[in-house]
Amino acid sequence: MEKIVSLCKRRGFIFQSSEIYGGLGSAWDYGPLGVELKRNLKNAWWKTIVHNRDDVVGLDTSILMHPDVWKASGHLDNFHDECVDCKNCKKRFRPDQLEAKCPFCGSKEFTNSRKFNLMFKTFAGANEDTASQIYLRPETAQGIFVNFSNVLDTTRKRLPFGIAQIGKSFRNEITPGNFTFRTREFEQMEIEYFTRPEDAPAFHEKWVNERLEWYLSLGIRRENLRLRPHLQDELAHYAAACTDVEYNFPFGWSELEGIANRTDFDLKQHTQFSGKNLQYKDPVTQEEFFPYIIEPSGGVDRALLAFFVDAYHEEEVKMVSKVEPKGETRVVLKLSKELSPVKVAILPLLKKNDGIVTLAKKIKQDLQKSFVTVYDDTAAIGKLYRRQDEVGTFYCITVDVQSLEDKQVTVRDRDTMQQERIPVEGLKRYLTEKLLN
Length: 437
Ligand code: ATP
Known about the structure:
By secondary structure, the chain is α+β, with helices and mostly antiparallel strands. The protein has 13 helices and 23 strands. The radius of gyration is 26 Å and the shape is globular. The model has no long low-confidence stretch (mean pLDDT 94). The site of adenosine-5'-triphosphate (ATP) has 15 residues, from strand 10, strand 13, strand 16 and helix 9.
């Protein structure tokens, strides 16, 4: 993990939040490369879940919601963790994660365990009284449930169908940690899939497999993923079944995503608390009933961390090339072509040669319309290759003196390190075939 955290900081993937003020615990900022990776990840999810299917539509709901939502959902009554305080230094812990002694001061004296609600409270408007108290949403799901009728009326979808959303959620975690794995502010990618009650178990199984496949299709190795069905006593108050997709992080197997059968709990609760009927009416039989909901709910930040960890490789350079001597160790981030933040780097071999610079800049301008492309002339070529390898850039294009005569450039593949001479004219077609197919 230390190597991952250090690479993230050094190359501008992830920075500590408010670092110049000493940092805010458990909050992170995505840097220039991190933001590209995160967008690619969310776009890949959206494409698979919304654009490539006929039965799922998207939604983007607000973080602030009517406070009654959290009464209906059960979050006000049930969204608790147990906590204890160290009597000496006053630090707070989850009892299940605590050893005999306080890790900060060594004291063995703790308060009794009590319940701590994980929702962040805030106030809407100028009055800071209980009437204006609201919450930052702890999951995006509720925004989908309360819009169930709106979506149904405007899209004319019939069961089974789903609503998908990506957005920020907030939980006042007692013990955040493991870099971006557990934070107080994070992004979720959630699907609420509405089915007939009798079809729910089969759709649950289907979604578990589809979600596992998604992580595999974007490059995570099979041996680092596993499915873990929840035991009966672990299930949330609304769930009839739940299976987690877990990843083998450096700190152990941990949840990436949970796929739950939420039954008809949510629509029934919101019907009761809002007084609006959220039943589904079958257009053929006119039968009215509450659909069951299958919920695949994953974290953007956790998924990003898993893809990053899985892509991180240190390997000995085997090929013999003047600029990349055999036996060197290189760090290479083998992210998939969908996820890698930069697809192409343009590297002029001589930065003082006007002809080379002009051609290199022209190539960049042409390619950046189709691919995320960077230009770097700030080091020797061997070093430039290493720099691009460790951030996962797919192709490096070198422009040299020869290029001015034969109108060809060298294209180097990140993974094989093989080089090919390609005509400048055919570059876009070459890269399109490699990167977009
Ligand atoms: P955990 O058991 O790790 O606290 P959870 O079971 O409470 O997670 P869910 O409520 O199922 O999590 O949330 C769905 C997904 O949202 C999780 O699988 C995870 O990817 C993400 N997530 C939840 N809490 C956090 C957090 N504090 N930081 C980052 N991601 C989170």
